[in-house]
Design a protein that fits this description.
The complex is a heterodimer of chains A (651) and B (86).
Chain A (H helix, E strand, L loop, with lengths): L5 E6 L5 H9 L16 E7 L2 E7 L11 H12 L4 E7 L3 H13 L4 E6 L1 H6 L2 E3 L1 H8 L3 E3 L8 H13 L16 H13 L8 H9 L3 H11 L3 H10 L4 H17 L3 E3 L7 H10 L1 H50 L4 H8 L4 H29 L3 H13 L8 H7 L3 H7 L6 H14 L3 H11 L3 H25 L8 E3 L8 H36 L1 H15 L6 H10 L1 H13 L5 H13 L4 H40 L7
Parallel strand pairs in A: 1-3, 1-4, 4-5, 5-7
Antiparallel strand pairs in A: 2-3, 6-8
Chain B lengths: L10 E3 L7 E8 L3 H9 L7 E6 L4 E5 L2 E5 L1 H4 L2 E8 L2
Antiparallel strand pairs in B: 1-6, 2-3, 2-6, 3-4, 4-5
The chains are: A alpha/beta (651), B alpha+beta (86).
Amino acid sequence: MGKGKRVVLVGRPNVGKSVIFNQLTSSYGMVSNYPGTTVEVRKGTGEGSGGSYQVLDSPGIYNLLPFSKEEEVTLNILLEGNIHLVVQVVEGKNIEKTLPFTFQLMETGFPLVLVVNMLDEGERLGIRIDLGELEKKLKIPVVGTVSTRGRGINKLKETIDKELGKKLTKWKIPFALGDYPPAVKEPLQKMVSHMEGYYKFNKRALALMFLQGEARAEEILKKGEGRNYRTLVKIREKESRDFSLLINSWRLGKAREILQGAVHFSREKTISRRDLLSRITLHPLGGLPLLFLVLYIGLYKFVGIFGAGTLVDYLDGQIFELWVIPHLVGAIEHLPLPGLKYLFLSPYGIITLGFRYGLAIVLPIVCTFFLFLSVVEDSGYLPRLAMLLDRFFKKFGLNGRSVIPLVLGLGCGTMAVLSTRTLEGERERFIAVFLLALGVPCSAQLGIIMAMLAMSPAALVIWGAALLVVLSVCGYLMDKFLPGKPSKFYMEIPPLRIPNPGSVLKKTLARVKWYMKEVIPLFLLISVFMVLGSLTGLLTFLTEISAPFLQAMGLPRHLASVFMIGFFRRDYGAAGLYTLLREGELTINQLLVASLTLSLFLPCIAQFVMIIREQGYLKGFIILILVMISAFLAGCLLNLFLTGLSWGGGL
Amino acid sequence: MKGKVKIRRKEMPVTALNKGEEGIIVKVGGSELERRKLFALGLLPGEVIILEEGYPVILLRSGYTLAALDEEMAKNIFVRSLGVHQ
């Protein structure tokens, strides 16, 4: 009976929707403790007694009035997604603050199941919720869960199954909670009785959103009502009332009324050790040192030294060089076609370049970075970081919220560009996408550059400082020249949580899978392209053209091919530098300039495609040109600076 | 006229509270969109908040929700102080 039906999960950020999604659908998905990972709606299949049903996981949302492009996604699903059941996930301890959203969902008339998650967290604070009582008062099914430990999930599955099996009734009066105060109720009734259009959404709910000036509701009503729309506007304007305040206050008051007797507080909360750590991370004097500690241990030690050093050395040096390549050489030599050998094993060949870089160099770095990122995310640290860096980011036309895409950019720039949707304004999205394209090195690139420069700590510091200077100057100039101001910062800070190993692992796997699906085919394509380029002389031609530019930066001309590869994948270009360094063809100064320019240079092709998708052709090409100019200028300046310091051949 | 000045009862922006001081929200100003954001975080007139931290952003605790706001956003919230929370 539930076959082919659609269930959507909604709720605030950080309440465990994605964990529940994983458990309902037994599929890989990204879960995280910050807004922004569920930028695209994930779909999975759940199994019920009446057949399978589709489950959708939506981006976190506070109520039905969205603030960012990402939040609009959730509203759109509800407005247009042909939904059969809405499952709202709330946090046990925060139920009072989220119940108003529950009312809003009830008002839409969709069948609704309320999931009270993280019961254990509430219990630790001495909050006991009487779910049966709540169910009786709200008149909708209520299920309690501790999703990370699987508690209550079976009950939830049964409830969903039962709800989907029910015959869909006509919109009923939303709930038996009474009605809004007359100041709202009267204009509301008047509006509903004047509405003539046909809507998939409940008229009363639509009218309520309209009263609060929600843009999407205005748009829908304008379309649905035609000329009649003016009547609705008149009703709203007639008694210039503060509808937002009236409606929200009533809902919160109602929430309190319902929770009376359903929620029990048994003891005052005590300051636990986690609370103390939480306090330290919130304090500027504690937060910044902790940030450096996290970066040092996580990024430098784990990703840089272990991932890009130990693991890459082993995979590349041992497995590929001593085992895979000799065996394949043996196998391919027996093949009749000599062209094949060239295609597979020449310096740009599919195996020597494509598979080796992809699997032996990039994969270990990407895996370690995503593992690190998943732990940091699930612990609830990122919103704290956003908060600490807000003032700093305002100088570049961004606000604390942009920390999330920028940090994600250290993993994969393509993914990060997608997540700029969590930012509110066009202006911030543009600046963030530009900075990501310009100078946020992705994990593979970062790892390789760190490994290369690791032999000279001074070089690593210069590279890092130069990169920060370029990013800061460009961000500062953007803020100065673009019209407008950074938007104001607001964010809910979730509690610190001990990451659940299962969910961390699942998320890391999902991300690595996403990355590899994009990387491997691209790598192979590039190999073919490079082989063809070197056979037809195209590569030589391009090298000739770029020679003067390279010379200006004090770089040898054969680096042109490295930059060329760099456009396809930035990490790939960095890997090319790595080979040159091993063969002793570069001085440390040249390496520094090349590393910086390459970090700044064009975004990889996958990222560029994503930029076009998110920002359009015009802005995409503006970004491209700006990035090229800045990279070249920065390379020249760094070269001048380094030669000025006359370190000669080496640091 | 003169009797109105009661220091503890004065309405002031939340940014004027001391660290650890409790206040009851009396008014939320700013643009419609900004007010909606604050309402979504549960910062409504009648709610009791504690100022947890004033720098680098304003940290307000209300119930079990912790909200971080920048100064521009926070100065639109007006409170009446309830003194230092025990």
